[in-house]
Amino acid sequence: MNAVEVLAAPDTDVWGDALAELAEVVEILGYDDGIHAMLAAPRREMTVSVPLRRDDGTIQVFIGHRVQHNLSRGPSKGGVRFSPHVTLDEVRALAMLMTWKCALLDVPYGGGKGSVSIDPRDYSVPELERVTRRYTSEILPILGPEKDIPAPDIGTDERTMAWMMDTFSVNQGYTRLGVVTGKPVSLGGTHGRATATSRGVSHIALAAMRHRGIDPVGATAAVQGFGKVGHDAARFLAEAGILVRGVSDQYGALYRTGGIDIAQLGEHVRDTGSVVGFPGADALDRDGLLELDVDLLIPAAVEGVLRADNAMKVQAQVIVEGANGPTTRVADEILADAGCLVVPDILANAGGVVVSYFEWAQAHQAYWWSLDDVEKRLEKRMLDAWRQVLDYSAAGDLSLRNAATSLAVERVAEAHRMRGLYP
Length: 423
Ligand code: NAD
Prior knowledge:
Layout: H1 3-7, H2 13-29, H3 33-40, E1 44-53, E2 59-68, E3 76-82, H4 88-104, E4 110-116, H5 125-138, E5 148-152, H6 158-172, H7 196-211, E6 220-224, H8 230-239, E7 243-249, E8 252-255, H9 262-272, E9 282-284, E10 296-299, E11 318-320, H10 329-337, E12 341-343, H11 345-348, H12 351-365, H13 371-396, H14 400-419
Parallel strand pairs: 3-4, 3-5, 6-7, 6-10, 10-11, 11-12
Antiparallel strand pairs: 1-2, 2-4, 7-8, 8-9
Helix pairs in contact: 2-4, 2-14, 4-14, 5-6, 7-8, 7-12, 7-13, 12-13, 13-14
Nicotinamide-adenine-dinucleotide binds near residues 225, 250, 323 and 352.
């Protein structure tokens, strides 16, 4: 049994979908089984126990993972997710998506991803610090600015990255700013990183709408998820003249025909922790948000939200995937049949990894760029990648997802070929 067969029995859809997408692209590119197996198999996986002494003195043990999917184009790069539901297969899938994303945006990394099976909302800040430091020290042998560079993801933030950087540096005996990205600006972070993913989503959304002949000014949108990606994506879209009619988080959703005031909603969320109860809009069924009559839909929450059971109810003409893996393969087909343009995650939400690359490059140079520099370079990289994917899609008559993955897989396979197989 080869590596593809071993890995082809996933127990979560997102990993099965990632492998199926790769298999489809390998077929399009005409690669042999050997290259397919090399591209499918995660290069390195580490599972660790993360014991925590709670504030009340009791001990609890969490499971942590770090997966390095591919290292052919450089060190692995990818977020750390704190979530009680996370599985190893999900981490593998997200690491694979990172490999394609880094190759597509031509940043010199492979894909990685990490997780701890904790719900951060149930723990105090000192407890979260202890968990983060213990997880970091457990995976220390495979971390480093030239080996594997984590970043924030669901349930983690710049403070988590500061703790990870400090734990790594204390163990090295000197400060290694380049070991993580998404750090606070006061600690070697870069201007523009906090909003980079959302800024990139908004650049791509505007380009995709224009490509579809929709004038963004006065067009309508719905955004699922009001976290690090969704909040600022909604803000940037509103600033570009789009009426953001619907917004949701895990607790509920909101609707307002004339557009929701995102700045005011942001204050409400800062005060209450949720979009629910915002006086400036009507309450809506949480999952009904995906079916709103809008031009643009941005799923920016979790994976697998657009599925066989709801895809046919989607009315948006353009979907821009702010989240990783929000559309299942079956939903993708239904949406394509309905004529909906789906811009895939590896392109749409790549702004974060692009500016992470800028942060890492600045840390290596110890020379800091202005916000203007960062944002101009980000916009150029996102729009260059958008045009490359559009051209590839037109040339091969492929969906944007197949085009983006093919382009990325070609670059990774080329790196494999140029390096050769050791020994
Ligand atoms: P986050 O934890 O900051 O925010 C997640 C948001 O989604 C929260 O508002 C949460 O309440 C909401 N949510 C969760 N389940 C929901 C549901 N069923 N319906 C509606 N809302 C729901 O996380 P984030 O960093 O914003 O990441 C969101 C997605 O974007 C993830 O898929 C992540 O992997 C992806 N992503 C994030 C970045 C980044 O820079 N943060 C970069 C690329 C991709």
